[in-house]
Amino acid sequence: MKRVRSTSRVVALIVVTLVGAGACAFDPQAGGSGSGGTTPVGAAEQVTGASGTPGPGQRPATPAKPKPTPTRMTPPTKPTPPPKPKPSRTTPKPTTSATPAGCPQGEHQRAVETYLAQLGGFGRVTVDGRQSAADCAAIKKFQKRYGIRPVEGRAGPTTYDVAKRLATTDTGRCEAGSGTTFCIDLTRQTTWVMRNGKVLVEPTVTRTGMPGYRTPSGTYTINYRNIKEWSNPYEVWLPYWQHFTQGMGFHETTTYLHNKSIGSHGCVNLLHADAVRYWELGKVGSKVVLVGRRPGT
């Protein structure tokens, strides 16, 4: 009986020992199978990193210093030299010419110089056929006075035509007599004013009736005046109107006077300044003398 009890105690001790060993031998983090053998708990924490506290008798692990990554040294770049300036093309200096800048020489230079010198009153003119600053100024003054466009000092066809007509007008053809007389040269398309046999207003330009509306020559008298007359047939205002015959009279032009392709319907067209002057000198009873005939009418 005593032998049986002793045997039972031995068996119970063995069972207790086996159950306690099984509770500590398996690391659940090692897969739970236990096939990997026994691993101390402290060792597992260090491996997994679950705890940074060293176990008893262990020297704290010194963390490894990261090796510095070698940087590739970029050699310093040399400063880029500024671009060399390219030689610019040298602009040739303008050559000095006899023609003043902005005042071209026309094809009738010498003839215009001759007529302007003959007429006088427009400044110093040298008759040599070459444009100069003085010639330019004189031609411009002439062009402005007689409504020639453009006023550029060029001796072109219109300037030549007007200068020739004025310079060749014979004021002696007008039989003025006493008092104030308005004279018209229909051939040259010029007009002037006489008083007591002397020239009071120098010849200026005009434009008379076009083909089919010829202005007749003869001697007439101003019989009606109006500072601004309305033309019923042509529906246009006639400034500084002075009537002398058959619905014809003096008045300021309503178109470019030097357009020779057109003309009036018999009236004597004047530039603005001349129309004003004629209005100031005229009156009812003033004599009007027309000589010659406009070419082409």
Automatic annotation (TrEMBL):
The alphabetical list of record keywords is: Cell shape, Cell wall biogenesis/degradation, Peptidoglycan synthesis, Signal, Transferase
Q: Which GO terms describe its biological process?
A: cell wall organization; peptidoglycan-protein cross-linking; regulation of cell shape
Gene Ontology cellular-component terms listed = extracellular region
- Please provide, alphabetically and separated by semicolons, the GO molecular function terms listed in this UniProt record: peptidoglycan L,D-transpeptidase activity; transferase activity
Record has Cell wall biogenesis/degradation as a keyword:
yes
Looking up SUPFAM superfamilies in the UniProt record yields: L,D-transpeptidase catalytic domain-like, PGBD-like
Pathway info = Cell wall biogenesis; peptidoglycan biosynthesis
Ranges of biased composition (kind: Low complexity): 88-101
Fetch the InterPro entries from UniProt.
Answer: LD-transpeptidase (IPR050979), LD_TPept_cat_dom (IPR005490), Peptidoglycan-bd-like (IPR002477), PGBD-like_sf (IPR036365), PGBDSf (IPR036366), Transpep_catalytic_dom (IPR038063)
Instruction: Write out the catalytic residues in the record.
Output: 251 (proton donor/acceptor), 267 (nucleophile)
Q: Where is the L,D-TPase catalytic domain?
A: 180-291
**Leader sequence segment:** 1-25
Q: Which organism is it from?
A: Micromonospora costi
Query: What is this protein's name?
Result: Murein L,D-transpeptidase
For bias kind Pro residues, which ranges apply? 76-85
Q: Which Pfam families match?
A: PG_binding_1 (PF01471), YkuD (PF03734)
Ranges where the record places region Disordered: 31-108
